[in-house]
Amino acid sequence: MHQSPSISQRREEKEHVELLPAIEELRGPIKKLLNKLRPHIEKGEYQLLISDEASGRIPSLILLRLINEVYKEKGYPHLVFFALSGGGSFWDYDYNQKPEDIAGYLTRILPKTRFGNKAPLKALIVTDTIYNGKTFEVFNIGLSRANIQSDTATVGVDGPMKEGDSRHRLETMYQTHIFWGMEGTPQISGREDLSGVRTIDPFHLQTRTITDPDVVATRIRARRDVRTLTHELVKWYKQQ
User: Fold this and answer.
1) What is the CATH number of domain 23-239?
2) What is the pLDDT of residues 139-170, one digit of tens each?
3) How many angstroms separate the CA atoms of 115 and 100, rounded?
4) Which of 48, 79, 105, 183 is most open to solvent, judged by the fewest CB atoms within 10 Å of its CB?
5) What is the pTM of this model?
6) 3-state SS, one letter per residue, for the chain
7) In angstroms, rounded to a whole number, what is the distance separating the alpha carbons of residues 51 and 81?
8) How far is CA 79 from the centre of its chain?
9) How far is 155 from 14, CA to CA, in rounded Å?
10) Of the given ranges (57-66, 87-96, 181-190, 200-209), which has the lowest mean pLDDT?
């Protein structure tokens, strides 16, 4: 016999919002990430969250809000957020100087946060894709020099990093974990209209906000979808 939907089911259908495809695509991979990250989140292991700019901005915002929601319930201090560009095209510069830039920046800024000179701290680096591990190494070298431990959460793994041996080599070399949600590169990669920011050049750690009206409109929509998806993921996380 056919049963009419309950009031709660009808309310959920009415409240359902269709997300931008690139944002909706993140739902499954981030659920996989959360299953892997759960033991670390539940222990309040991370004090910092670092977004690998610019394509890491969207997954970073989702994980930042979700983890802070869990931390709030458990009485842990909320994460301190940093948005830094670890990649670029001038690789000689990146691998010789950029780790030093990251270490120097964090060493200057962290004493101004609630952590003061407390050590050691642990960061969760969030990115859209790990392909060859170059940016991963830049961040890990820089954070190590700043006396900060870290793990990395990436939406996708592509190219050489699809191979478990390649990831394991980096994990062993840097005494860290790489958590990933899908094979391949997600649609958010390179989507400045979604992140709303762009890297300046390989010499800068910070990004620049894009002010083009069309990009601003898409960014606003993307942020709304991030809030919606995060809210749904928080509910899912608590039910597990």
Assistant:
1) 3.40.50
2) 999 999 999 999 999 999 999 999 999 999 99
3) 21
4) 183
5) 0.91
6) CCCCCCHHHHHHHHHCCCCCHHHHCCHHHHHHHHHHHHHHHHCCCCCEEEEECCCCHHHHHHHHHHHHHHHHHHCCCCCEEEEECCCCCCHHHHHHCHHHHHHHHHHHHHHHCCCCCCCCEEEEEEEEEECCCHHHHHHHHHHHHCCEEEEEEEEEECHHHHCHHHHHHHHHHHCCCEEEEEECCCCCCCCHHHHCEEECCCCCCCEEECCCHHHHHHHHHHHHHHHHHHHHHHHHHHHC
7) 8
8) 12
9) 30
10) 87-96
**Residue with the two structure tokens 């991370």:** 46
pLDDT digit string (tens) for 70-80?
999 999 999 99
Residues in the chain, total: 240
Residues 6 or more apart from 203 whose CB is under 8 A from it?
88, 90, 93
Letter for the amino acid at 123?
A: A
CB 145 within 8 A of CB 108: no
Please report where in the chains the tokens 């894709």 appear, as a residue.
129
Tokens 């004090």 belong to which residue?
A: 47
In the numeric block, which tokens belong to residue 162? Answer: 């699809």
